[in-house]
Amino acid sequence: MTMKRYDGRTKPEPRDGKPVVKNPEYKCLVRAQSRSKKISTVVEQRDVEIFSTAYSNLLKTSVNGLKRLKKQKKKAMATQ
Amino acid sequence: MTFIPNWEEFEKSAEMLYLRDPMNTRYTIKYSHTKGVFVVKITDNKKCLQYKTEVQQDVRKIDKFISNLIRHMASNDN
């Protein structure tokens, strides 16, 4: 998953360096990819809370293949 | 690119990298369940920082950092 700041421009930037979007209201552009499937979305300012809680929940529930460190530490403490 | 070994250091330098050029900085996370690794990367096309973890507890820290970053990306302060 990639995310970056997005100002809402839909055209490339002109060569003279003038900003395309005046007074940009910054959003967050999120792209996700798995093998050849790609999805993307723009998170508006008012949706940030909803998106980040949903995303945190996704991380908590889906990312469960990693090692747990603290448990090992506790066991080591108990044997001492 | 090499990986930064500890998270606190990554977090600090990633924040600095982002604040220097918010418009051109992107943040990528990759998770491989079968390999059991979680990789985060931040780059502004000039400098690139990476952090790799195999520990579940780090995901919580990363999550916290991501939500802060998202909140800043979708806000008008620089």
Q: What's the arrangement of strands in the largest beta sheet of chain A? A: 1-2-3
Outline type of chain B? globular
CATH T-level fold name of chain B:
Signal recognition particle alu RNA binding heterodimer, srp9/1
Major beta sheet summary of chain A: 3 strands, antiparallel
Oligomer: heterodimer
The number of helical segments of chain A is: 2
Main β-sheet of chain B, in a few words? 3 strands, antiparallel
Output the CATH homologous superfamily of chain B: Signal recognition particle alu RNA binding heterodimer, srp9/1
Overall helicity of chain B:
40-55%
Mean pLDDT of chain A: 76
Distance between the termini of chain A: 43 Å
Helix-strand topology string of chain B: HEEEH
CATH architecture of chain B: 2-Layer Sandwich
Characterise the protein shown here.
The complex is a heterodimer of chains A (80) and B (78). Chain A is 32% helix and 25% strand. Chain A is built from two helices and three strands, in the order E-E-E-H-H. In chain A, strands 1-2-3 form a three-stranded antiparallel sheet, with no helix packed on it. The longest helix of chain A is centred in the last third of the chain and has 15 residues. The model of chain A has no long low-confidence stretch (mean pLDDT 76). Chain B has a single domain, classed as Signal recognition particle alu RNA binding heterodimer, srp9/1 (2-Layer Sandwich). Chain B contains two helices and three strands; from the N terminus they run αβββα. A three-stranded antiparallel sheet of chain B has the order 1-2-3, covered by helices on one side. Chain B is globular. Chain B starts with 6 loop residues before the first helix and ends in a 5-residue tail after the last helix. At the A-B interface, strand 1 and helix 1 of A face strand 1 and helix 2 of B.
Give a short synopsis of this structure.
Chain A: Belongs to the SRP14 family. Chain A: Pfam families: SRP14. The complex is a heterodimer of chains A (80) and B (78). Chain A is α+β, with helices and mostly antiparallel strands and 80 residues long.
